[in-house]
Amino acid sequence: MSHTCEPDHNAAANALTAFMCVGITISYLPQLWRIVAAKSSEGFSPWFLLLGSTSAASGVLNIIVMQWGLIKCCRVLSIGSCIEATAGVFQLVLVWALFSLILVLYMIYYPADRKYVELDVDMPNHLPPRHVKTPVKSEEWKLSITLSWVVLLHIIFITFTTFLLLATNPSPDATHRSHQLELWATFLGICSGILSALQYAPQIAHTFRLKLVGALSIPMMVIQSPGAVLMVVSIAMRPGTNWTTWISYAVAGVMQGILLVMCIVFRIRQHKHGLDDFGHPLAGASAAAHADVPSSPASQTPSPVETAVGDAVGSDVRSEHGVDVVEGEHAAVGEETPLLAKPSGGQRKEGGVLSWFKR
Q1: What is the pLDDT of residue 184?
Q2: What is the pLDDT of residues 162-214, one digit of tens each?
Q3: What is the pLDDT of residue 7?
Q4: Where are the transmembrane segments (predicted)?
Q5: Would the CA dihedral through 321, 322, 328, 333 be positive or negative?
Q6: What is the pLDDT of residue 79?
Q7: What is the rounded CA–CA span in Å between residue 358 and residue 121?
């Protein structure tokens, strides 16, 4: 075992893998934060999340099978050599974990107003229809729940099958695998590639249909699209891997680039129309729209009721304080003019609201 477990020191591959792990984590943070900050996962296709999660899981188990001999060598290697030997496995596990976290946040922050069916009930007496929320789940919400269960069952099934084959088909050394393991690893790699190729198709169609960016993170795609090239090179440089291990990430990078271009175009289009990424009016555009609305003449001219109330209040003030309100150009008002003139003759008039009723 010690002879076959000699560590393969590749400084370039190790540096690239470390850089990729940091870059992968940084690239997913904008997407995770965007969903949490917006408290909405609107814009995601549940099929996209299903295919992405199952593709990433298949890729992880593919590289575990391909490098199982190196993983077992950790029993005789130092911690540093073990980390170096299994860095490729950790890299793909990180991708799977972060993408699966997007699925979890998608379910947590699914828009509440879209979970259940709403009906328009006609009201009597020509009243506008009333929106009633029913306990019936919407079709998209039911689909999201179903696909989430599929993701969970898929990872359980392929994990159980993988470790069952690894336990019943031991490899003779760290670089050779049994025929059954070779077939299973190839199957996982091809499935990962097919699922990854199909992954972005429903999301591209969903985004094109909505014409909205939604909760999709453009910064994440800006980082990940060119990073797919480094991802493929990093995996291909690891020992014990072949094209079935990295093909899914190459296909995903191309498809993600297409989605990125679409999102940029739709964001520019939405902002030109004064809309945010979710199709809601922007704050500045909404305020400008209200400012541009001219006030109607009715709002500038006091109504008869307002006129009557104003006269009543004015009469009440005159009666209470004995003030004669003089209108016109003869009312000379200066700084020395008292606000409330004393009643003539020292006699206080009967005032208050009663005087208004006696008019």
Answers
A1: 92
A2: 999 988 877 655 556 778 888 999 899 889 888 887 888 999 999 999 888 88
A3: 65
A4: 12-35, 47-69, 89-109, 147-168, 183-201, 213-237, 243-266
A5: negative
A6: 83
A7: 52
pLDDT score at 175: 59
Where b means 16+ CB within 10 Å and e means fewer, 189-220 reads bebbbbbbbbbbbbbbebbeeeebbbbbbbeb
Please answer whether residues 55 and 195 qualify as being in contact, where contact means their C-beta atoms are separated by less than 8 angstroms.
yes
Measure the CA–CA gap between 220 and 35, rounded to whole angstroms. Answer: 12
Query: Can you give the pTM of this predicted structure?
Result: 0.69
Nearest to 207 by CA among 221, 193, 187: 221
Q: Which residues of the chain fall short of a pLDDT of 70?
A: 1-4, 7-8, 131, 171-176, 284-359
The two three-digit tokens of residue 351, written as one number: 């005032």
Query: What is the model's pLDDT at position 356?
Result: 39
Please state, rounded to an integer, the average pLDDT across all residues of the chain.
77
Paired with 280 in beta bridges are none
Q: What local confidence, expressed as pLDDT, does residue 8 receive?
A: 67
